[in-house]
Amino acid sequence: MDRRKFLTATAATAGVGLASACGAPKGVGEGAPAVVTQPSITWRLASSFPRGLDTIFGAAEVMAERVAAMTDGRFRIRTYPAGEIVPGLQVMDAVQQGTVQIGHTASYYFIGKNPALAFDACVPFGLTSRQQAAWLMEGGGLELVRGLFADFNITSFPAGNTGAQMGGWFKRQINGLSDLQGLRMRIPGLGGEVMNRLGTTVQVLAGSDIYPALERGTIDATEWVGPYDDAKLGFHKVAKYYYYPGWWEPGPSLSYQVNLDAWNKLPASYQTIFAVAASDSAAVMQSRYDQRNPQALRDLLSEGVQILPFSDDIMVAAEGLSLDMLEEQAQADPAYRKIYDSWKKARKDAYRWFATAELAYAKFAFPRSM
Ligand code: CA
User: Fold this and answer.
1) 8: CA distance to ligand 1 center in Å?
2) Hey, how many other C-beta atoms are within 10 angstroms of the C-beta on 200?
3) Class of domain 3-160+252-291
4) Stretch 251-258: mean pLDDT, rounded?
5) Of 35, 59, 270, 324, which is least surrounded by CB within 10 A?
6) Domain extents in the chain
């Protein structure tokens, strides 16, 4: 466009503004930049986890940073570790009551409120991280889970996964089922229930109480997370046998539980931004664990830790009891049955697929680097 044509075009456009300036009635938005300012909102997030679990707590911080960045700081989420606003296991109540807008937690902590909430996180012999994400995000799982949360005035978003956990630290070798008899082990939740049925004396201890109990010998074994988190608590200094896999947590998915009233008041753009930030924080958490665990495992091995698989008889007995437990629940409760059936089908299909290419590659390639 040459200069003369440009000036003519500009003058024609400017005419509208000039007419307004000369007293014509002003239309909505006319003469002003078409920018709608979104409201400034501050939410509080109460986590069930301490800062020390930095990969997990860090995911909530990543989510909050992303939300602030995408809203030019207008939507802020303040993150509080367990105990600062409410104790870790009261997070869901705090969200339901609106004390905080978001709870950052694992839904299996709340099976006392509804046993089917476990499927939002994981159940023993359940799905791996990728399989759980596929079922939640693309297989109808999240919709079913949100149906359960609606009874508590809550909606939920996946918040990251640790990947398959380790089976934990044992002061002596466990060569088979008989070695579990009378063993005193710290293991919470449904895994603890199954271990109890296998003859183990189950103890539930908070994170900070585990090391002293193991050191004093009040417990013989404990589970926690995986090499990166376990090494920080120093379990390898008082127990040298490190077993795998943590069949009770093959792919635990954490959650952002959001108060529904607060959620419904958010502008639609903030809702989308929150969902995107939640999803990104989940991806960051998984990548961090997948990067940090291999290094931590290498360091633990260099300190003389022995890593050992649970024996086949333990695995087979634990699997049988775990799946029976889920069937029992489903028979007793039609609402549980509904979500269980969806999960069970997803598990069957996913296992068949993952047993082909993924497994064949892993079985061939991974052990060659041991
Ligand atoms: Ca664990």
Assistant:
1) 71
2) 20
3) alpha beta
4) 98
5) 35
6) 3-160+252-291
